[in-house]
Amino acid sequence: MAEPIELHTLDLPELAPFARLTDPALRSRTEKEQGIFIAESPKVIAAALDAGYAPVSLLMERRQLDGSARPILERVGDIPVYTGSRELLAGLTGYPLTRGVLCAMRRRPLPAADDVCAGARRVAVLENIVDATNVGAIFRSAAALGVDALLLTPGCCDPLARRAVRVSMGTVFQVPWTRLGGRPGDWPHPGMEQLRRMGFVTAAMALSDSAVSLRDSRLAGIEKLAILLGSEGDGLSLTTIAACDYTVRIPMSHGVDSLNVAAASAVAFWQLCVP
Q1: Does 9 have pLDDT greater than 80?
Q2: What is the per-residue pLDDT for 21?
Q3: pLDDT per residue as tens digits for the range 121-148
Q4: Of 30, 243, 245, 261, which is most buried with the most CB atoms under 10 A?
């Protein structure tokens, strides 16, 4: 473990990854051409290390050196470890540190969808979901309820955004994921064709008078199923819904027409993915 670097100023250029940079700004940094992301809290950092992500530097409250961060320090080798008071570090980052520890980590190239879905029976497709909290919660539900992989459209929030990583409790490092194309024009076509080529029957979670119930026994019997979930405001696009094999609706009570997309994902995953 490297000797901790006690901070007395916030002006060190090495602190730039932690200093209020937006997630897009971190993503565009040029280290190893892939940029970096911030993992927050010892549990989440440990999950990222378990998944093989390379740490760049650590920022932590002084009291964590011999506290909950000690097992992390023993795993990261000689990377820089910056430390200071809670108040000083909050001034640097713009927010109090959750569990007192942040780690800047290198991103990795995204795998191909065919590789992510190899052997998968149940996948979820997130269309243009932009809220990091929702994306993180969906990953956590996917990990808990048997989703084999997650596929994101080009307009979807980055799962390695700081808040998405934190809300997911590190499950973004456990469930295989990638994007279906890199440009807005790659979805819904040719992305939908790629799902079919990989052998998936597609189920759009959407409000429609013609939708089948989530309890429909035909859905549970499908060998390879892709569950499509849409954006927070408008849901799935009409083009996407029309291209799917099924439109599926969660039965509701008391005149409620829909759930938040993160809650809806958990209900759908429980019904369609849990053995």
Answers
A1: no
A2: 54
A3: 999 999 999 999 999 999 999 999 999 9
A4: 261
What's the CA gap between 231 and 242, in Å, rounded?
16
Beta bridge partners of 84: 61
**pLDDT tens string 235-258:** 999 999 999 999 999 998 877 877
DSSP assignment letter at 95: S
Cα distance between residue 215 and residue 101, in whole Å: 43
Question: Based on the number of CB atoms within 10 Å of its own CB, is 180 exposed (0-12), middle (13-18) or buried (19 or more)?
Answer: buried
Residues 260, 97, 170: CA angle, nearest 5 degrees: 50
User: Distances from the Cα of 218 to the Cαs of 67, 201, 203, 212, in angstroms?
Assistant: 52, 11, 11, 10
Cβ contacts of 14 within 8 Å, gap of 6 or more: 57, 80, 82
CB atoms within 10 A of CB 50: 12
DSSP conformation letters of 142-187? HHHTT--EEEE-TTSPPTTSHHHHHHTTTGGGTS-EEES-SSGGGT
